[in-house]
Write a structure and sequence with these properties.
single chain; alpha+beta; seven-stranded antiparallel β-sheet; about 35% strand
Length: about 625
Amino acid sequence: MKIWIWLALMAIAAVPMRGAYAEGGAFDDGWLKLLHYEKSGSGYESVVENGEFFLTPGGGENPEAEYRAAVTAFNAEAKPAGEEAESSGGGAVASGEKMETLEEDKDSGELKKCAFPARFIYLKRQGAVRGTLDDCADYQKFLADVQPKAVTMLFTNAYMSNPSSLFGHTLFRIDTKRKGTQLLAHGANFGADTGDETGVLYALKGLWGGYYGTFGIKPYYDVINLYNNIENRDIWEYELRLSDDELELFTAHMWEMQRAKIRYYFASRNCSYVLLLMLEAARPELNISGEFGGYTVPLATLKAVDGVPGLVAAANYRPSRQSKLKYRAAQMNARQYDAFIDIISHDKMDLSALDEEEKADVLETAYQYVQYRYVDGDLELADYRKKSLKLLMARSRIANQRQYFDELKEGENPVLAHKAKQAGIMFGARNGEAFQEVSFKPVYNSLLEDSYGLLNGAEINLFAGKVRHYDARDKWGLQEFDLLGIKSLAGADAMFQPLSYDIKVGYRELFDAKSGEDSGALMLEAGVGQSYALGEHTLLYAMSVPNAAYGGGLYDNGYLGIGLKGGIYYNSGKIRLNLQAMQNFTTSDTARGQTYAAEGGYGLTRDVMLYAGYKKFNSEYHDDEEFGLGIKVNF
């Protein structure tokens, strides 16, 4: 009798205990991170903004209501013991298609657990719900298609032709159990839905959250084709060490995140930040996203992931077509290179100057170049077939078919690149007056910083500022503030002819040549031209630079101008130099004249460099000259 009384009391007590458990579970890290809640004042708010991602009205701000609704719905959908599981319906989704059925659950009668399998898995592990996902036909088809084995984080280097990809890009690959290549795996990408918008409006909306970001899943060979072949971006693959439970939760969460819409900010809540949230949902004890505040760039988040002990199991380099071609061309001797250029530039097939063992590599490189041009859209199909056939026939006629060139297998791991933020101090003199200058930039890279793991000749800076103190005036003042600074010195050669450009938008204390005084002004420069490689370490560049400035303190309030700029950029690793001269033709005497500038950096480490700079402006009225020495540190 006592035993029965004791069991009855336990059963009665279980009801309030279960309610208390449900209330507490709503604020566990696992649940909060699965729905991407973040602290907001005294409560919580999810970064996901669309209602379809939640089970209750206002669920984006109420983790407890969502928790209770999920427990109630999932338990209501559980089948009685012994009953055969029924399919939830819906058509099968073909490999590579984005899973569109998720947004139809309210109208199609899709089970809630099938729309949100990660929440179901999480709650079942907590003992809060019962049942299985066996009757979720679309989700089971997804799992059968993906066959998850592991998760790999991908980093593509910067794509200077797209403002949203200037800092590189991160995405996931869900590795497959299928035998053979991981090209059959699936890539999971978070990107801004920008439609057809371009130009200034595109950039401004991207900076200030004017777009929503969404997840898409497609075959990895499509990812390779886009980034490796079309955009010619190197890809680094970082295999993550996740447990079986974490892999199951990650895959299920990726399925349900296809319905999520998250406000996208190019410089903060972007692809790299949201990918950190995905990892934290699979492993709640991680708190990598908490390291990032106002600025988030893919390289910094990659370094943060790599810094988690034991999380990254291995790294693999996948070079672009362009990188492979440059590597092969660099292995040619002078006779091989001349024959190669005759083939690709003049369609002249003359290998008579080559030894037999030198011919196969030249023809193979030329064949790969023809493929590159076709993928790049520079060759029509008919021309591609004609040129390819000609090269293959020439290849078949040579006696020695062996290739001696090495293939590109190793690259500069971006994890080892310098840190994104930088602060510096400089001491100098301007027109005989001593000054001290403090500089800071939150992101990302300049020509004088160590380029290891980054694009050589690329400069990308946001919100970079300098304040200066002049001894004679004994006061500090803002010297420069760049809202945006982008420079690309991409060397042109016989194979590739990319444009070089230099864009600056911001504020300057400009020297007014007519008055001989400084004046604050808003300024814009937009230079475009070309760079040419002079050996391995040197680039020669020339640009036309439309420019404008406006400030009430300037002699004529402002000006429009066109400048002609040329320079030499040298980078040998530790030593980086940039020498340039510019003639500016303006509508005002304020800025009409010649500017000569020389900057140099010497790397003490990858994150610390000594800096030296000199600049001189000559005009019809007043000249301006300054120099300085300092140190800059990345952190």
